[in-house]
Amino acid sequence: MHRLYKLNLKQQFVLFFISLIVLPILVAYWLVSVKVTSITEKQMGDTLFQLVKTSHLTLDEVIASVDGTSEKLLISPEIRRLLDAPPHTDYDRLKEYLALDQLLTSYSSPNAINYSVCIPDLAMRYTFAPTSDVKPNGVFFSCDTLPGGWFQDAVNERGSGIIRILIKPGDNVSSEKTAAYVRGMNSNHDKDRPAGVLVITGLNILLQKNIQSLRIPSGGQIVLLDKSNTILAENAANLAVGDRLPVPESVSSLEQGVILERNGRDSSMYAFHASADSETKLLFKIPRQSIVGEHEGIRQLFNTLMIVYFFILLLASLYFIRHILSPLSRLTRLTRSFEPGRTLGNEMLLNRNDEIGMLNQSFIDMTKRLNQTVHDKYVLELKHKESELALLHSQINPHLLYNTLESIHWRIMLEGGQESAEMVRDLSLLMRIGLSRGEKLIPVQEEIKHVEAYIRLQLKRYNYAFVVDWDIVEEAKSVLIPKVILQPLVENAINHGIRKMGSDGRLSISLRAQGDTLCVAIADNGYQAVDLAKLHSILEGKLPHEGYGILNVHRRIRLHFGDEYGLFYKKMPTGGTQAIIVMPLAGETVAAGDSRR
User: Fold this and answer.
1) What tens digit of pLDDT does each residue of 43-76 get?
2) Percentage above 90 pLDDT, the chain
3) Per DSSP, which regions of 63-110 are E strands?
4) CA-to-CA distance for 176 and 136, rounded, in angstroms?
């Protein structure tokens, strides 16, 4: 709750809008469109599986009844006489043939199931018998006995019946295929007995009568398959017995179950069950659209209503944000960003008579009164700062001019000539830059010239031999800084650091830009210990009678740029002291060709 209070009104409104309106609607949409669909699919899948399982058991019973009929025929006297004791005369052979043929015809039904016996081993004895392309049932002595064919498969089963796809016997110009139940008639005890096969064709017609009685959603398919996914019976006009049915790998690899194959609008649900007795698999293929079609219509209606509802809700939210939250947020931003003395523009004007308009007008009136008060105070403080800056600067130049003239005096007395002229030139440069036509800020490059002239005077005045290292980046030379702020620091570094070190003394002066800040560092390698605590006390104004030069520099920088800038000291790792001035870099620059003289 504490984190909630840290959010602004818009953020709180968006949070409540999403958590209390959008998310509940999305959850309801998910329940209606996704969860209900999933539940419908699962329930439909369970129902289809029970139906396919029950239907397959019924088909197995049909196949079992055919197997029972074949068992009766196999033990009939007509078949036994033909196989066990072949007659020696043609008349006897004809009589036995006709007896068995009549028996098979009595079991057969026109345009449906037909019973036949195929005994190729007796073909030489019954040359008068017609072939299977003449009549649909009867006794035949010529058939496909090639290895891997249905005849050989039935013989290899040793009396067990199997289902195979055959070319339909009889007048079959179009080579129509049929599902047949074939069963071998060979004897395991009598190897000399001729091999024969009982063939029951039209099994698919018998099975399809049961399949067509089943009721499934429109567009569905019911297919009975063998182990190789060859169609044995079906209820679809676009399928034919003997064709291979393409099924997903997931369906082929499992014995039974329900699988939903998703493929866009062509998604289908497969319910299937395998029978170990008949070695068949019954498959229901139902288009998913026919299962959830009605639900899809309801979902589309729900989607349309949700879109309309969201559109209305969005318009209401935009109105609320634009006419209530946005004016309050704008007023809040202006309140936070308002600076005393800044005049508000037309962005605060609101032509409204409600509470928000009254609050806005009250804030405008308050800022006007505050601006007037701040303006009066600012004018007074500005005059006071200008007077203080002028006083501080006026106290530096006489002191510097006195020391310089004393140096020239001593040099002229001791030597005279060119060196003295150079000192006079440096003095002229010091005076010109120090005065700067009364300007308070000068470019860094002019301040550097001022420091260079001062160092040259000091080197000549005292015969110092210290080394000066300069490190000034080009972009810093045009930055405006308060004048005569480096010379006091250089003077301190010489007098308190390297004055007595001769050529071992080293003075380093660097000016670098760090982000939006100008960093000036003046370091010496002096060997004397430095009391940093005392220097910091001087800069804080705790020792008003000491360190006037560095205090002057520190105060002038803060008066110009603010209390976050100023002068700082630290010890060098290799010995000596470093004075660091931090000033703003942006906003105060001068063109490269402007000398500001």
Assistant:
1) 888 888 899 999 999 999 999 999 999 889 988 8
2) 14
3) none
4) 12
For residue 386, count other CB atoms closer than 10 A to its CB: 12
Q: Which two structure tokens, joined as six digits, stand for 422?
A: 């150079």
pLDDT digits (tens, 9 = 90+) for 499-549: 888 888 899 999 998 888 999 999 999 888 888 888 898 888 888 778 878
d(CA 537, CA 8): 45
Please measure the distance between the N-terminal and C-terminal CA atoms of the chain and give it in whole angstroms: 63
pLDDT the model gives residue 193 = 67
Give the architecture-level CATH label for domain 468-584.
Answer: 2-Layer Sandwich (3.30)
Per DSSP, 504 falls in state: G
DSSP string for residues in 317-357: HHHHIIIIIHHHHHHHHHHHH--TTPPP-GGG-----SHHH
DSSP symbols for 23-46:
HHHHHHHIIIIIIHHHHHHHHHHH
Strand order in the sheet with 197-201: 138-140, 114-118, 197-201, 177-184, 161-167
Domain ranges of the chain: 55-288, 338-395, 468-584
Cβ 119 vs Cβ 78: under 8 Å: no
- Domain 55-288: CATH superfamily, name plus number: PAS domain (3.30.450.20)
Contact status, residue 178 vs residue 168, Cβ threshold 8 Å: yes
Q: How many helices (H) and strands (E) does the chain have?
A: 17, 17
Q: What is the largest CA-CA distance in the chain?
A: 170
Overall size of the chain counted in residues: 597
